[in-house]
Each structure stands twice: as structure tokens, then as C-alpha cells.
Amino acid sequence: MEKIIDIRNVTKMYKLYEKPMDRFKESVSFSKRNYHEEFKALDNVTFSINKGDAIGILGTNGSGKSTLLKMITGVLTPTNGDIVVNGKISAILELGAGFNPEYTGRANIYLNGLMMGYNREEMEERINNIIEFADIGSFIEQPVKVYSSGMFARLAFAVSINVEPDILIVDEALAVGDIRFQTKCIEKMKELKAQGTTILFVSHAPEQVKRFCNKAAWLNQGILKALGESSEIVDLYEDFMKNGPDSGSEVRTISISSEELNDFQLPTNPDVLALVTKVAINKDSFKTFEKLEIRIDYEVYANSIEDLLLGVAIYTPKREYIFGPNTHLEKVSIPTDIGRHSINYVISELPLLGGSFSVDVGIFNNEGLVCLDYKQDILGFSVSNKYFSEGIVYMKHRWEVVK
User: Fold this and answer.
1) Is the pLDDT assigned to residue 189 strictly greater than 60?
2) Which residues have C-beta within 8 Å of that of residue 56, sequence separation ≥ 6?
3) Averaged pLDDT, 103-132
4) Where would I find the ABC transporter domain in this sequence (predicted)?
């Protein structure tokens, strides 16, 4: 495979000063006294990215993700090590980065094109597609200093994907903006990926990384903890996060549902594509192997959402993930056209042994990459038995006497 990015033994150190004056004191000190502490943002990171890869970058805040991406783009330089990039990069790193706040949106399109190496004539061939994708109306003629964060994201993404990059870097840009825009961005990124564009994708939603990327890199406190197939790395990362000091909560709700509408009405917010409107369970106290049935009512407000899917997840009160299938993974067709719909989720023989559990229900599109509506702890149930086994889940098994 052809390497498009090669990261070799990269370390990045920052000098941290307690007070602004300390920087000046250090610069004029005849005794060469240090007034700073050193912070290692990246520690001897080495890995390569092949042409056409879609690689997710995982890690908590402060893990070094943004520092690494800025060095790949050339905004920062490594303290030690080398980064070799073989291709044209288009990056969305920080909202407003690369934009002159006094220029209009249109003028900033030309400015960003110039920074990418395109002349005005070449950008004129692309500007209509960029403006159409951004879809910010008359604000395109206004100074970007009056833009909301969502408008920044729309314009930045529209420019980045319309300049034929060899490498596209997206750092949390999809967390800003409405659901329709997120859907459009994901669809465009899938199109670019199919055309062979290398994509570096940072998201705090590991499921997005698992479903969109073929590879993933996990950074923790500046160290590359793991690199490999996205599904495997995401599972490692989620296991680490689950067992960390901040995992879990004690919130549990027995039953919550919305009121039924007498007449089907479109929501006043045009960005709402679909909603889970009611969730009900057949009872709230079970014995092991009893039938559990959850009724999910949802409403679709677009004419049709072809790739719509439903997911149901069961958690412990500390948010330990027990089980979470969805209709896309299991190739179950559900209604996707405008109107009200109902689905039953059935576990014929509940294998849980004992305890309290909560249920999340979500509705998504784009293979689960875009969340349209999510209800956390929408309902709860308990399981209790006379003693017959130990643990959380009953596994079918047998005993064999061999001697």
C-alpha cells in the first residue's frame, strides 16, 4: 500500500508559564533560569497512513489529537521527529481558522482557495458548488465575524470538500450544526472516501469511528496506545473509558413517554427529521427467561429516509453496556416514510440473572453515523430470582463428565 502520511518518532513539548511575565523573565535571564514547566503533548508517536484510508483518531480531551493534526497540516512543528505528507491537505481544525473575520463569506472562499494553491479563476469554477453546499443564504455576502458557529462549520466544510483534497482532516466539525447538515457532510465524506481520498476523522462518538473508518488510532496522554482495525480499537478505547474513574451514573427511570398527538403534525423546527415519540415495556419486573417486549413509536417528518434505523441498548445503572443491537446491523427493514410508525423489540427469553437495568432507544440514519433522536434511560426494569446461578447473564452451557 502507498503511504500518504508517515509519522516517525514525533514528540511535541510545550513550555507552560505560570504568569505571562515569566516568559519575559526567562528570555532576559543571564543565569538561564527556567521559569516554565514542560508539558509533553505527544510522546514518540510513530505510525503511517495509507492512501485511501479512513482513520479515526480517538482520545479524551488533552490526549494530543489536535496537536497531531496541526502538525500533519504544518500549523505546528514537532519538537523531535518527522512527519512526511505526500498530498494536498484540506483541514477543518478549528471554527474560524483560516477565515478573515472582516471578509465576507464569499471573499473567504477565495482566500481559502488561494491558501490551497488555487488562483481566482480556478475558484470561480468551484464557488457555486461551495455556496450551494454551505446553504447559509444571504449571509454569504456578510462578514464572517457575524456568523454563528454552525455557519462557520457549514462554510469551512463546503470549502474543504470542494477543492479535491488528497487528504481531508475533520476535527469535531460534525459536532456543530443541525442534523440535516451532519447528514449531508457524512454523505459527502463517504463519496470522497469511495473516490480514494484519505480521511482523518476525529469524533467523540466512537460509534461514528467504528462505522465510518476502516482504521483507528487511540491516543492517551500523548502516547499512541493502539492502532489497527477501527472496530477493534474502538472496543479497546470504550473498555478503557468504561473502567475509568468517570464511568457510570446512578440515574435510572422506570417509565417515560410523550403524549400521543391527536393529529400528525410536522415539527416547527425544519431540522428535525425523525423523533422517538413513545417507548413502553410489557412490565418492569422480570424473572430470568421471561419474555421482554419494548414498544417503540416514532415519527418521520421527511418524505422518506431510506437508511433509517432503530437501536435499543441495555445498561446497568452504572452505564455498563450489556447489549445493543440495531435494525441496520441485523438487516431488519423498518418503515422510513413520513408519518407515525411502531416497532416491537422482543427478547423471547431474557438471559439476565438479577439486578436493575435501563434502556436507551435511538433513531439514526447513514448506517448509524448520524443520530436523529436519542432517549437515554428512557425506561428501566429489574430482574430477580430465587437463587439458581451467579453473575449477570445466564449462558447456555453443559457439563461433561470425562472420567
Assistant:
1) yes
2) 201, 202, 203, 208, 209, 210, 212, 213, 215, 216, 217, 230, 233, 234
3) 89
4) 5-246
